[in-house]
Batch of 4 targets.
Target 1
Amino acid sequence: MADCIFCKIIAKEIPSHAVWENDRFLAFLTIRPVNPGHLLMIPKVHADSVFALPAARYQELFEAAKALSAPLQHAMGSARVGMVVEGFGVPHAHLHLVPINGPRELDSTRERDASPGELEAVAKTIRNEIENGSH
Ligand SMILES: [Zn+2]
């Protein structure tokens, strides 16, 4: 979709701190995390929300999130990985995957701007865990 910021990230018209992708999905760090390591997992085909995805793609999206959860948790040293679906920020289907140490940490009012240097350092840590960690 022409004006969709996530479609532009997928097309690499806008840079992102990507940590993982395959032919169908992309996971990258949000620039306004509630906690360090806050990822967005998106399908590469535009859909207004996760619930608008075809059933198979919907299932694959959550399986991709499952596959990233252990390396994300290990990379960030968090107690859990939380997941949020709400879709108010950008009308392109996305899951929030957030390293958390308590239930209130998923509150979106905790969002803050992260510096490019911080985002790149965190992205490197997560990419390294995905590629080299044992899960
Ligand atoms: Zn889009």
Target 2
Amino acid sequence: MHEALFYQTLENKTIRCDLCPNVCFISPNKYGICKIRKNENGILYAETYGKISAAHFDPVEKKPLYHFHSGKKIFSIGSVGCNLKCLFCQNSEISQRSALEYENLYHHSVKEIVELATKRSDNIGIAYTYNEPTVNFEFVLDTAKMAKTKNLKNVVVSNGYINEKPLLEMLEVCDAFNIDLKSFSDDFYKQITFSKLENVKNTLKTIRKSKKHLEITCLIIPTLNDDEKVFEEMSQWISAELGNKTVLHISRYFPRYKMNIPETPIPTLLKLYEIASKYLKFVYLGNTLLNKGNDTTCDKCGKIAISREGYSTYLSGITVQGNCQFCGNKIVEY
Ligand code: SF4
């Protein structure tokens, strides 16, 4: 087993884990809230180090990232576990399980993962995704460090619930982030995800300050986080604090895990899209079959730079450097 980072051993071999804002106090032979980090005799172990639940070459759009190496593939890996307990979790089969509770975990070394990632010439790097990657911090960090030496990009798809010190370490080797901003209500974060909004806002501000690529996803659950006024406040905050070019993906929810509210109505998504678009230049709709909210329109000349159908991406309006073909405006990071 691999020793974890960011912890202190206290009296009676109790451990305080400082990786995420849950700051668990863990007694010997017990796990933290994430079910991943275990106290064994006063040492904290990262139980999912090198344990992979899924690995695929995905379109980078699937993360979702719409302004980062558009049209390319990224080797995407996941494990199990999460430090949040969102009642609406859309991938609880892996996120809400421990390594002991999930049978199909495959062992891979850091070197093997990086070698697999270099197998395809159209692959840009490695995405740490599917479950919450920050609870597998040590493996993500070690892999990202080695990937960097091979000129691969590192992408993190996360709930953003991580303390600043480990986040800064991650920022040194990671290139792009998609962070969930699940609502702009403290009560929603407290009652539905059992966490705090303020910590996620801090993560977003830290990533923005680092100048690494940042996109945000907000999953809309009817009656819980679809209030237009709160959504407008969130859009204003993103624009003011992170910039009006921050990419926002508004995603459709489906009933899963402990939530049986029916899926998000399309008119709700369209209304929120309209609200966000008042403050942000790049707003998209995800998890729908709509024709709206897929394409990237140049924020300078208004022409379509990238069009999308499902995960097919057509780059007819963009140069290989990521500039608008018509006016030269920089839109996508390559
Ligand atoms: S990473 Fe896990 S063990 Fe550590 S504080 Fe967060 S939930 Fe607790």
Target 3
Amino acid sequence: MQIAVTGHPGTGRDTVARALRRCFGVRARRLADRGGADGGSSGSALPPDLAVHVLGAAVRDCDLSFLRRVDVPIVAVLGKCDLRGGAEEVRSLVARAARDLGRPVFGVSGPAAAAQVTEDLRAALADWAVAGRWVPVLAASFVDVDDPVERARRTSALAELGGRGLAVALERCAAEPTVSAAELTRHLRGFSGIGALAAPVRACAPVIAAERERRHRRALTLLAARGGGPDGGGSAGGAETDRDRCEADLIR
Ligand SMILES: Nc1nc2c(ncn2[C@@H]2O[C@H](COP(=O)(O)OP(=O)(O)OP(=O)(O)O)[C@@H](O)[C@H]2O)c(=O)[nH]1
Ligand SMILES: [Mg+2]
């Protein structure tokens, strides 16, 4: 499945794309701010099967006008939920966005969704939990320590998990000091809300399959009309055979 992650700049599109790749094994990449798709690691010339559209704190006019032009199934996400207050605030933002868009919206905390806790990160988290280190209200000040090695370790953990993700991981390490890196990754994904996207993405499968079939038939029709092979050649010698094959494909 090819997913284009859309939304206005800064909503967390690259992070959501990374989370979709890591959690669901799909090809997901951010749609370029202008022009064609790019910005992802899974480069492909194929058109996307599905758009995952990332909203900011609220639906904007540019979201509405963009989504009106999208001709593939859409799954809408409210991004950066870890920065939007507590569970109650997030629920109300998600409900308002769903009302404004007229479709379901799923809240996601990107860095926690995309997290892949390594053994080094797990060990650092366990050290901090044992030492009673917590993430301050101003999460950035977690890295305010003199030792440059420790500062680098903290900066990297904060960048990887985000402030709330880091706090969630630390809480889990404090409650269960022997927790594994894999279990911490699962725990963060559970917190992130990304799992709720599985059902709506799966529900798009029949539409996606029908659209792929339509594209395939259209491509074969064009090939057959040109009388050429898959390379578009159409050389006199092989033309009839290629055309026969295309037409046979079409009526299969
Ligand atoms: N706390 C938090 N930070 C996030 C979240 N999603 C993304 N970020 C951070 O926001 C910054 C931009 O994230 P991207 O995923 O690159 O967002 P984008 O929409 O591609 O934005 P641009 O690349 O700036 O156009 C990065 O520093 C991310 O780590 C989130 O859900 N929570
Ligand atoms: Mg980005």
Target 4
Amino acid sequence: MEIKESLAPLELELKKVSALQGSMAFVVVPFEQADMALRARREMDTAVRYKDHLVIGVFGMGADEASAHFLSIPKGIAVYPGDGTDVQALISEALERFKHSRGSSPWVKSLWESIREKGPSTSEADGEGKFLVSTFYQFYAFLGSHLGELRAVEGVMAPADRRWLEDLLPLGSVSSPGEPQDRVSGDFFTLMDQWPYREMMEAKQELGKKTLRRFRNIENLFTLPSISQEVIALAGDDLVAASRMAKVIEKDPVLTSRLLKVVNSAFYGFRRQIDSVEHAVVILGNDEVVNLAFSIAIHQIMDRIAPRKAQLLWEHSLLVAHLSQWLGPVLGCSGGNMLYTLGLLHDFGKIIFLQRGCGFGDLTQVSSLEGLAAEERETGVSHAEMGAFVAERWNLPETIVDGLQSHHQPSKAADPATAVTVHVADIIAHTGGIDMGAINTAAARYLLEGRMDSISPEIVSRRFEDTRTRVKNLLDA
Ligand SMILES: [Fe+2]
Ligand SMILES: [Fe+2]
């Protein structure tokens, strides 16, 4: 009786609408979300409580429009006259739809879509757009600091939406298998409602645009020494004679002496002295010589940062280069030499920022979501995006640009196997093992799809120790 009476205002409105031959949407939301729904309601809409729900009669809207209007609130919608002609029937229909919609959370997609919409067009002539919209670490860091609230709504999300949110968070931080999750908490929706993601996204992009413009004008940063360019170009040709490769290297005395020094170091462990570049090319092979020449050229670009930091970053880069080259084939990635280059350059964005006086947290630690979000707040772009931006200016292959950009977010990579390889090699280089707490969910999922057998903790730690010793020998040369 009481319920019937409470529906009276809606019945009255429906009568008017039917007399005018108009339409009306009935939006049912859980009562815990009444505050948010009432804020989204227009003045002429009518809202009443019905059992555990709030029902809002919205004039002149179809289901899609009404759904967009109550964007981040879980809801069921029925529309007069298409779905029924009396209030009771329409509300039952909306409730039924609400029940079925509990498995999906359109607000997740709406949020992401609106974040993306705000991004500048990727077809911008200056080509900066794609480095500005690639991710929004501040959003993920925000999620990471509200895992309790996120977990409480996990049960109402469609698997695809949940995956999307989990991708950058550590494995298991949202889904807790076996734990029944069947309640909707208003807290998370309220949190999302209050977090000014649009403004923050806009601020990030404005700042990012300025940063990239500023860096674009630093001439010497964007030109690789021409000898290295020649070496890389020659190496692309598998049939090139060692003597031709050697001639190019020998044009540069610094490159030549450095190369011979390294070739004769303990890293390679040759007993006989190697005294010519041609001999080195024959013994090491083109790929290895190119890696070396490339490393030496890149190292020269680091001379403007504090020696201690440069040393840390350089050692880390070499470690990740060698570990990626080993790990790639194990994880089904056939990148070969490209993996070395990618590993060597993966944190190049950090070098560039350090050269320009931007600060960084602890260089001995894996970049956390909070750390990446802090870079974004300071400069508008993360070191991953900055590195990719420079790599593109150097005309490095698209696989390298993509790998640099997504080494902290493998799920967004064009080639996830490559990005996972560098992501995991990065973590091994920092922690000496595969720390599942540090690897993000997307990468962990990839590893757990039957790829863990060949990378047992013993194998990984032995490989890490071995590679570290070899890299130290290389640095001592
Ligand atoms: Fe990184
Ligand atoms: Fe790194």
